[in-house]
Design the sequence.
């Protein structure tokens, strides 16, 4: 991709890929476990803030170590929030996840002496080194080089995540989650410990989303409380609905597509949220299978 | 001591507003079985319509006459709700809850931006109404009479709602539909009409909450989501679908909020959610909730 396109296009696609990892994580809950989370900004933001805080206070530069920090932090958070959330399903699950993410947002916002408040924390790409320090970006014109290298880096992580998630949803564990989604009572009668499975799904989902946030932050150069705020969760929900959450690739395409939509629509209209809302309503009303799901159905009809 | 009295009054004022919104949310859920993510937007709409109409009519009429605008703004919000229910929501009642949440979330996004489109991004106020009633001395400290009056409005609204739901024929139809939609339909109740009216009533209450609050604060973007999140806490504590629960929940949340703002503002929301999480762990259906 960087061979054909300029720095800007590569950067856009890299953004899209990081978001696609978050969408993969989110969809383990919505698509495969049947739990709609309105609070995934918490884990995305946790990953982002973990990277920014480790870089600032511990002076870590290695991206691998930063990602590890992001994963550990978001895993701890998801493990904790999960205990509270998975006892409930449907509406209460959605409300609780939203509420907990809002708590995190207010904390990031109010404890400004640690988190920088609304100014956020800077994560300059020039400080980051990839592959254990083998690749670094000194110099004034390093931005292009950073984007190119980082694109391949994110692409590799994305492929790894997609493969891992594919294995998870096709494993006995993933099949059990789907059984719980389709018929909780029957799954319970089969001896499945529902809460434990839901909690594990919640944990894995949080880790993927946290990893996405960690990868996203050097690209963005800055993390602000906005990544913890509810519209961020709304975006992640949107990825899945746009692509279609009843199939594996839907959310991935949804995330990448959404990223392009957002960039170009924001440039065109001041009322981006309005556009988004209308698209969402049209999608859930007329195309509940999402873009990918509908395309698959049309292709099947052609055959 | 005087400060305590004022804080209790502040807390009651906010409880009145929260009750109106949470009771509307609870009513809509109780009857129709959907959680309206856009509910806070109807509160914001009530606030904006009130502030705007007070601004427009303010020069021509005496302040006392402007109070009539509060219920009329709420009525306007109810009409918007009545227009939205059949066109947008009706087709989602038989579909899984995820879709109901998603469509009302889409509605939230649309309404928030429509408010920005119509009234712009700068806050608008209607403080003329607060000024017109003046101040009263409570233990030597001034307190706006407006807030006292609106606590009264909250109490009257709570009583009226209770009487409406438990003492009128329409209330019986409403509760019958809430308990068993099919049986109600089989007995000849026009369920579609009940749904529309319940949604309109819920929107009216949210709009009234916004109308009450705007003279003492201001209509700002984001107020809808802020109150949505708070009213979720209220219904989680009180029990979704219960009016008594909404009342008790609103009092608890409002008191707690006043306390934390007074002593340690940073943890305001965190403390609220902690309480909500504890209630959910001990009584998953809330203090007054029925088993779903």
Sequence:
């Amino acid at each position: 991709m960087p061979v054909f396109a300029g720095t800007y296009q590569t950067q856009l696609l890299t953004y899209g890929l990081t978001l696609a990892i978050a969408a993969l994580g989110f969809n383990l809950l919505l698509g495969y476990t049947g739990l709609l989370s309105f609070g995934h900004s918490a884990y995305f933001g946790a990953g982002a803030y973990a990277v920014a805080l480790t870089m600032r206070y511990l002076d870590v530069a290695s991206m691998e170590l930063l990602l590890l920090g992001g994963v550990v932090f978001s895993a701890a958070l998801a493990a904790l929030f999960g205990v509270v959330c998975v006892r409930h399903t449907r509406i209460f699950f959605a409300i609780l996840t939203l509420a907990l993410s809002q708590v995190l947002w207010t904390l990031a916002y109010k404890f400004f002496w640690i988190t920088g408040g609304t100014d956020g924390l800077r994560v300059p790409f020039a400080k980051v080194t990839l592959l254990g320090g083998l690749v670094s970006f000194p110099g004034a014109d390093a931005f292009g080089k950073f984007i190119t290298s980082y694109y391949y880096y994110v692409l590799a992580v994305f492929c790894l995540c997609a493969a891992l998630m594919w294995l998870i949803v096709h494993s006995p564990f993933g099949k059990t989650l789907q059984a719980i989604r389709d018929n909780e009572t029957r799954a319970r009668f089969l001896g499945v410990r529902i809460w434990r499975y839901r909690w594990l799904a919640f944990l894995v989902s949080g880790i993927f989303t946290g990893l996405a946030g960690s990868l996203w932050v050097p690209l963005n150069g800055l993390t602000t409380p906005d990544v913890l705020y509810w519209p961020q969760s709304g975006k992640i929900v949107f990825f899945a609905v746009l692509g279609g959450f009843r199939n594996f690739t839907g959310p991935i395409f949804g995330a990448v597509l959404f990223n392009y939509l957002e960039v170009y629509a924001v440039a065109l209209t001041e009322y981006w949220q309005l556009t988004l809302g209308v698209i969402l309503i049209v999608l859930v009303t007329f195309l509940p299978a999402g873009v990918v799901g509908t395309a698959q159905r049309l292709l099947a009809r052609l055959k | 001591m005087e400060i305590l009295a004022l804080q209790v009054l502040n807390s009651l004022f906010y409880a009145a507003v929260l009750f109106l919104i949470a009771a509307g949310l609870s009513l809509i859920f109780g009857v129709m079985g959907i959680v309206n993510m856009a509910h806070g937007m109807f509160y914001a709409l009530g606030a904006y319509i009130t502030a705007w109409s007070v601004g427009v009519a303010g020069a021509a009429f005496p302040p006392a006459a402007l109070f009539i605008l509060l219920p009329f703004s709420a009525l306007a919000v109810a009409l918007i709700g009545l227009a939205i229910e059949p066109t947008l929501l009706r087709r989602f009642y038989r579909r899984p809850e995820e879709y109901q949440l998603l469509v009302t979330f889409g509605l939230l996004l649309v309404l928030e931006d429509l408010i920005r489109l119509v009234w712009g991004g700068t806050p608008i106020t209607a403080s003329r109404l607060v000024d017109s009633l003046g101040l009263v001395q409570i233990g030597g400290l001034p307190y706006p009479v407006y807030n006292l009056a609106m606590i009264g409005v909250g109490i009257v609204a709570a009583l009226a709602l209770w009487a409406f739901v438990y003492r009128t024929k329409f209330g019986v139809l409403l509760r019958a539909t809430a308990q068993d939609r099919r049986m109600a339909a089989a007995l000849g109740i026009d369920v579609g009409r009940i749904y529309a009216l319940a949604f309109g009533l819920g929107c009216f209450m949210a709009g009234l909450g916004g109308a009450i609050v705007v003279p003492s604060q201001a209509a700002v973007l984001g107020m809808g989501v802020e109150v949505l999140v708070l009213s979720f806490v209220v219904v989680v504590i009180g029990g979704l679908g219960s009016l008594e629960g909404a009342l008790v929940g609103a009092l608890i949340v409002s008191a707690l909020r006043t306390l934390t703002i007074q002593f340690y503002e940073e943890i305001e929301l965190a403390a609220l959610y902690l309480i909500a999480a504890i209630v959910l762990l001990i009584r998953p259906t809330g203090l007054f909730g029925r088993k779903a």
